Amino acid sequence: MKNLKLIIGLMVFTSIISCNDNKNRQVQYMPDMYESIPYNADGEESVNGNVVNSKPVAGTIPRGGAPAYDVPDTIEGYDTAKVEVKSPLEKNDENLENGKAMYTIYCVSCHGKKGDGQGYLATSEKFAGVPNYKDRDITEGSIYHVLMHGKGLMGSHSSQLTYKERWQIVQYVEVLRADLLK
């Protein structure tokens, strides 16, 4: 009975204390979590006036980013990429294996396992005219350009693949093409 009176007394005391001004916080635990410092991403200073250098240095690549691909999505851009764009990746087994894995996920359904244009969607007549790599005059630059911008019915894959994965697919497509030309 004595414990029950104590519990009821604590409950009444707690409810009276909690009836303070509800519009203003009395105590803030970790105030930085409640009141963050807002920044304007394109500005040189934050909203509250603190000077912040938020603009990237000219000619740098953001962390996790990739170099800008400035070749336009035009016929002239395709021709330029075919001649001038070169892979920055070293040709090795690791890149080739990941290129094969990415090709299997994104390309094999149309282009086929061998790159002969006989993927599932082509053979089931969902898409007509999927190219055979053997019949095309392609280079690593033109393959990369098509991955970036798409061509014909093929859409761009730039948002699904990272910079490195696109170049790994390019390496694998070149191997498939070499096998078809034998």
UniProtKB/TrEMBL annotation:
Residues annotated as domain Cytochrome c: 94-177
PROSITE patterns associated with the record: CYTC (PS51007), PROKAR_LIPOPROTEIN (PS51257)
User: What is the top-level taxon of the source organism?
Assistant: Bacteria
InterPro entries, per the entry? Cyt_c-like_dom, Cyt_c-like_dom_sf
Query: SUPFAM superfamilies recorded for this chain?
Result: Cytochrome c
Please name the PANTHER family in this protein's record.
LIPOPROTEIN-RELATED (PTHR40394), QUINOL:CYTOCHROME C OXIDOREDUCTASE MEMBRANE PROTEIN (PTHR40394:SF2)
Full protein name: Cytochrome c
Species annotation: Polaribacter marinaquae
